[in-house]
Write a structure and sequence with these properties.
246 residues, mainly alpha
Length: 246
């Protein structure tokens, strides 16, 4: 159903007629002096012309008075119509406003659901991080290293909160109006390098995998050294036992 167009104002047309009637009355009144003078001086036909002018002026005055009343009524009706149209517009705007709030609630429900999923996933991440600490091969230690360029994302083997914040910053969507990005309130990295160039950041999982690969390489190297040292001790012990037996 199409929207009803706003009513055309009625007062302007009446105002134009009133202006024309007032101009005519003014013109007629300019002739009164001459007509009265002619009648006073006994100019032939002047008395009749004066009587006719007075009748015409009386009709013109009546027209002006009536049009003034009509204009006042038209202006009142126009104000009422404008108020009705404005009320209708506000009602439509209010319905649209309520729809946006409904959409906002739906979007926030998705945000909070994502937050719940993230909390559960982070709990799982924390559990496996603790499990990894106890799973370090005997004699080896987890090396101290940081994630990201210049270690801006913090320790690689820990809560990784800065990595998570940086990833949230990197993925912040552009606003539809083109002036900025919608960033999660808690996702503003401290590093100006990261803050100013989110498009240049590597995905967080790439950074974590790079760090994990470095940790694995370090632990592997430690194991190789421990195994080599243990083998040397074993070989030395075997040689000592052989000499003792001889």
């Amino acid at each position: 159903m199409s929207a009803k167009p706003p009513a055309i104002p009625r007062a302007p047309a009446v105002a134009a007629k009133l202006e024309a009637a007032a101009d005519l009355l003014h013109t007629l009144e300019q002739d009164v002096g001459q007509f009265v003078l002619d009648a006073a001086e006994g100019v032939p036909g002047a008395a009749k012309r004066l009587a006719d002018l007075r009748t015409t002026i009386s009709a013109a005055q009546r027209d002006v008075g009536e049009l003034q009343q009509a204009l006042a009524l038209a202006e009142k009706l126009d104000r009422q119509s404008a108020a009705t149209d404005t009320a209708k517009m506000r009602g439509d705007q209010f319905e649209a406003f309520k729809r946006t709030l409904s959409a906002r609630e739906k979007a926030m429900a998705a945000v909070l659901k994502a937050g719940a999923d993230m909390a559960a996933a982070y709990g799982e991440f924390s559990e496996v991080t603790l499990a990894a600490v106890t799973a370090v091969p005997s004699g080896a230690v987890i090396p101290q290293m940081a994630i990201g360029p210049g270690g801006v994302y913090g320790p690689a083997f820990g809560p990784c909160e800065r990595l998570i914040l940086a990833e949230c910053w990197r993925l912040a969507p552009q606003r539809e109006d083109g002036i900025g990005r919608f960033v999660l309130p808690f996702a503003r990295p401290e590093s100006e390098m990261v803050r100013d160039k989110p498009e240049a950041m590597r995905p967080g999982m790439e950074e974590l995998r790079t760090a994990d690969a470095a940790i694995i390489a370090s632990v592997a190297a430690q194991i190789d050294k421990l195994n080599a040292a243990a083998m040397r001790v074993a070989e030395l012990s075997t040689a000592t036992e052989a000499r003792s037996a001889a």
